[in-house]
Amino acid sequence: MPVSVSKRRPRTSKKTETEKPEKPLKDPRTCCNSFCSVFSRSFLYRFPLTILFLFLIYLWSTSTTVISGNVVHICISSRKLNDLYCLTAGSQPGLRVPVSNFTKPVSENVIRSEEEKSSVLVLGKDGDKSFAKNETFVGERVSDKPTAGTGLNFTTNETSTIERVSVLDQDSKPINEENLDSVLGQDDSKHRNEINTDFLVDWDSETGEERYRYINSKNEDEETALKAVDKYLKLQRSWLSMGNNRNKPRSCEGKGVYVYDLPSKFNKDLLGECSDMVPWANFCSYFKNNALGESIENLGKGWFKTHQYSLEPIFHSRVLKHPCRVYDENQAKLFYVPFYGGIDVLRWHFKNVSEDVKDVLAIEVVKWLGSKKPWRKNSGKDHVFVLGKISWDFRRNNKFSWGSRLLEMQEMKNPTKLLIERNPWEVNDVAIPHPTFFHPKTDDDISSWQNKIIVKPRRSLISFAGAARPGNPDSIRSILIDQCRSSPDQCRFLNCTDGGCDKPESVIELFQDSEFCLQPPGDSPTRKSVFDSLVSGCIPVIFDPYTAYYQYTWHLPEDHRTYSVYIDKEDLKEKKVDVIKKLMSKTLREREDMRSYIVHELLPGLVYGDFDAKFERFRDAFDITMDSLLHKISKTL
Ligand SMILES: *[C@@H]1O[C@H](CO)[C@@H](O)[C@H](O)[C@H]1NC(C)=O
Ligand SMILES: *[C@@H]1O[C@H](CO)[C@@H](O)[C@H](O)[C@H]1NC(C)=O
Ligand SMILES: *[C@@H]1O[C@H](CO)[C@@H](O)[C@H](O)[C@H]1NC(C)=O
Ligand SMILES: *[C@@H]1O[C@H](CO)[C@@H](O)[C@H](O)[C@H]1NC(C)=O
Ligand SMILES: *[C@@H]1O[C@H](CO)[C@@H](O)[C@H](O)[C@H]1NC(C)=O
Ligand SMILES: *[C@H]1O[C@H](CO)[C@@H](O)[C@H](O)[C@H]1NC(C)=O
Questions:
Q1: Bridge partners of 482?
Q2: Which atom of ligand 5 is nearest to the CA of 500?
Q3: Which of 186, 213, 277, 452 is the most exposed place for a label (fewest CB within 10 A)?
Q4: Which amino acids bring their CB within 6 angstroms of ligand 6?
Q5: Is the CB of residue 132 less than 8 Å from the CB of residue 605?
Q6: 433 Ramachandran zone, left/alpha/beta (phi>0; psi -120 to 50)
């Protein structure tokens, strides 16, 4: 249902894009244009009007989703980032109201309306060095493979042993395993070959650096768009901070965190609307325990029935206890604005209200800030918002009434926005992990969980917990479900359509019992389930780079092979790949290496500790985020 409508605009020179994104931009649209119009230009007119028409009919008549096309170039309307986002990211959140009773925080089927999903990790080679190195690693390193996270050099070194493949030299067909093998013919290491088939390495013609290639661009504009994605990711990775070594006591010198005391209508009062948040469910139980939700005894200590959109209050309660919190704005480096913008917008998603109503709080909060000196001082650049929904929800365009315009406001351009799914063309959109059900309080809570899942026998090779997307012809979910069900010995399918995934235990137990967890995009590219699977020690199988690789620059390493398997969804659609066979070909050693890396090195940094958390050996997702924010501000201000 590709609908691509953009305006033709003069091509912007690459120079524009290379400008520091943190420069103040006078107008968000201008900004967008300079960053993006270039990219979307040639997507224009690509799809016949009929399709557009059918799409609109579909949209209005069913009043359910707009499902995305998951393909590059698919888009819904309009000029602006949204288009682009959906164009290239290939997905727009659906507007569908869940058919089933929504009571679960489990990603599938939950408010299926939009985002559900996702996540993954990424870390950079120049990001901080010992990503997770000494700080979170507790077990014996099982692997001696360079991929197992040996720190700063791991990416560089590992890939440098691989023949560099320039896809540009190939014909436009995606390089598949066969021809990749031939390209890599002189590489006689079986091990390397196996790794290499998962992705392509390419030269960046400008910097000479190598980079991963997940998508073969079909034309120059798409290439430009992809390059921009790369560039922003790189920039974000350069802000990653691993914080202090545990040997050195943390110093708050120059790192003051100031939390605005916003009127309660911007946060607490919104939680109070829990019984009327969406028409088919009562959210009140999710907001208990400082928004961690009710505890889940079966899964152990630190497990809660957390709602996937609870990030705002969860993060807020941690910030209030940050060791570097200051009460004098003059001592502050970072300013936290505890506006629950996601919960604000969520309550309007399924109600028939005017757009003005949806924007009331967004406009008021910006106005409120406008009267504050620190906000004016650096034009908001040292301010941060946590928005527990996807970027799309805050970028309403003229065609659809979905969401608010919070992030379309000019004033919101400069501050950092921490989101569970970022807009890949917005450098100040930073993606942080979706909240999972695990919220440890102490180091021991983390290590006991690690010890438990690392030795857990995994009876299934593969599992998929999800629902098909019958209304979306572009969805690869049905293909995956078919493949899964045709190999019952290898693959288990948990059907989320009728609430089969409502209980967190069902999903987490399945993931703990599986080696690989399939994570196709849902209504938007990211999936909460990716984090559920990582936290359960199940290796995520990713089909779209926007699901994880283009998102979580501070929490997942750049080299996706350390923690995931990538299978191009286009190959899947063209039936070029049998996912089951492909995963069966992974050796025990490869699985163990990945799992060890996930459990020992990534996991602590993917979970949000509880409101009282005190970690010494580990840094959780919150710590990594806060340190990196401070680092970002020192580098960009
Ligand atoms: C939805 O959940 C509520 C509470 O669990 C239950 O009482 C109700 O029957 C469910 N409705 C449907 C349609 O399943
Ligand atoms: C990491 O830990 C090892 C062993 O504890 C130690 O030898 C090494 O110096 C540490 N590295 C860093 C960067 O702290
Ligand atoms: C990374 O590589 C550089 C240059 O080869 C080397 O000097 C440095 O010690 C390496 N760092 C680590 C952590 O291995
Ligand atoms: C939404 O509200 C408007 C104005 O009150 C009304 O005209 C319209 O029919 C409503 N739409 C739906 C789907 O209820
Ligand atoms: C999943 O459950 C729904 C509802 O029960 C059913 O319609 C659908 O066919 C199921 N999907 C599969 C693949 O079994
Ligand atoms: C990578 O490792 C090799 C030795 O294995 C070393 O010579 C090289 O300097 C390292 N760093 C880079 C950036 O290649």
A1: none
A2: 2
A3: 186
A4: 153, 156-157, 160
A5: yes
A6: beta
Cα-based distances in Å from 203 to 197, 401, 551: 17, 41, 21
Calculate mean pLDDT across residues 199-227: 75
The pTM assigned to this predicted structure is 0.69
Nearest CA to ligand 2 atom 2: 134
Structure tokens at 422: 């970022």
Q: Write down how long the chain is.
A: 637
Q: Name, in order, each residue with C-beta under 8 angstroms of 586's C-beta and a sequence gap of 6 or more.
A: 194, 516, 565
Specify whether domain 443-606 bears CATH 3.40.50.150.
Answer: no
Ligand 2 centre distance from Cα of residue 241 (Å): 17
Q: What's the CA-to-centroid distance between 578 and ligand 6, angstroms? A: 36
Q: Whose Cα sits closest to atom 3 in ligand 6? A: 157
Question: Which of 162, 139, 141 minimizes the C-alpha distance to 151?
Answer: 141
Comparing C-alpha atoms, which of 115, 235, 390 is closest to residue 407? 390
- Count of C-beta atoms within a 10 Å radius of residue 227: 18
DSSP strands (E only) in 433-579: 460-466, 491-495, 514-519, 539-542, 565-566
What is the pLDDT confidence band of residue 164, given thresholds at 50, 70 and 90? very low
For residue 602 the two structure tokens come to 């990534």
DSSP for residue 435: P
Q: What is the pLDDT of residues 290-332, one digit of tens each?
A: 999 999 999 999 999 999 999 999 999 999 999 999 999 999 9
- Residue of 123, 129, 153, 158 to test ligand 3 pocket, by largest number of atoms within 8 Å of CB: 153
The tokens for 476 are: 């690869």
Q: Pick from 520, 518, 517: which is nearest to 569 by CA? A: 520
Name the phi and psi angles at 245, rounded to 5: -70, 150
**Rounded CA gap, 104 and 540, in Å?**
21
Instruction: Please provide the distance, in angstroms rounded to a whole number, between the alpha carbons at the two ends of the chain.
Output: 42
Which residue type sits at 265? K
User: Where exactly are the structural domains of the chain?
Assistant: 252-436+614-636, 443-606
Which residues share a beta bridge with 332? 256
Any ligand 3 atom below 6 A from CB of 153: yes
Can you tell me which atom of ligand 2 is nearest the CA of 130? 13
Closest C-alpha to ligand 2, atom 14: 134
